[in-house]
Amino acid sequence: MIQTLRLENYRGFDEYQLRDLRRVNLLVGPNNCGKTSVLEAVQLLVSRGDPRVLIESARRRRESSAGEDRRRGTEHPVHHHFHGHRLEPGVGLGVSGSPDYGWVRIRVTEGDPFEPGDLFEIIAGSGGPLALVIQAGNDREGTVFALTDEGSLDWRSPAMRHLAHNRPNRPPIQFVTAESLHPREMARAWNRVIQHGRESEVVGAMRLLQKDLETIHFLAAEPTGSGGGSVGILLGFQPGTRRVPIGSYGDGMRRLLALSLSLVRAAKGFLLIDEIDTGLHWTIIEEMWSLVVDSAIESSIQVFATTHSLDCIVGLAALLKKRPDLADAVSVQKVERQLDHTVSFDGKDIITATDLSIEMR
Length: 361
Known about the structure:
With 361 residues, the chain is an alpha+beta fold. Among the domains are: 48-164, no CATH class; 180-251, no CATH class. It has 10 helices and 17 strands. The chain has a 6-stranded antiparallel beta sheet. Strands 10-14-15-3-16-17 form a 6-stranded mixed beta sheet, sandwiched between helices. A 3-stranded antiparallel beta sheet has the order 11-12-13, with helices on one face. A hairpin with a 6-residue loop joins strand 8 (130-136) and strand 9 (143-146). Helix 7 (251-265) runs parallel beside helix 8 (285-298) and helix 8 crosses helix 9 (310-322). It is globular, with a radius of gyration of 22 Å. The two termini are 25 Å apart.
């Protein structure tokens, strides 16, 4: 479990640290303070610097664009990950986590034009190539990943080809965005739920919103729905009645399903949730937190979540009042750009702050 997280030259942070991290950590703070960047930094660290995490982050933030060379498809520029959005030799970033996750360092370097042609595949007439050197843990030399002219990772480079054919043994990481999981991702997670015989847990969690829910079904013929929608997910109620597409209900049902499935899939790993309370009414926030904290403890998951909502914090405090045994498992981390570290609140602090109407956001 990560207890301290340090970021250097990562996105909007020059140097920043999160301390006293617990099993479940709620990140709060104003817009554009870097809460989502912290989630991305955790993902990069736990993945041991997997460059595909940089691509995923660019896609989530819609930083990707169509490349000038259409044969290459979409470009995912990496320069936004570096503080100041710079991409030039010598620029670098670092993420480290104690006690068990070591560090990841990424730096920009000049590609050697005299390297074998299949390493950089320099296009005639282009400038000198750039590359990323990614180091993790005890890897002192690092791995070189070629960049395209547009500053994206080049899928044709040997290092990227090697990644495409290898699946390193790493802890599972689930990243749930504010838009929730794509139905395709939910279908994959549901398959895992079935394999482990945990359907009843997911249905039970969904009953927070719909008390009479009996079953959940993913249509085998169209697990991704129509046009990426949600019509491939059906909810069952009384036996003999017609099953209803989840899209017929509010966003809260889809959000809660994504959360429940992710808790199963993240066992013995990490769950990263952007805007955890999106789509959920304040009246069930306490029950939502009970689900998350209990699942995190039982399944050895470390959770990092963000929110802008006071109701989300109040709901967490209400749970801690009823369940003082959970106080040591939870923290609120206030991201303050004026400082070089977060302001950390443990379970008892959270209760005190809400009782005294102290603003933690």
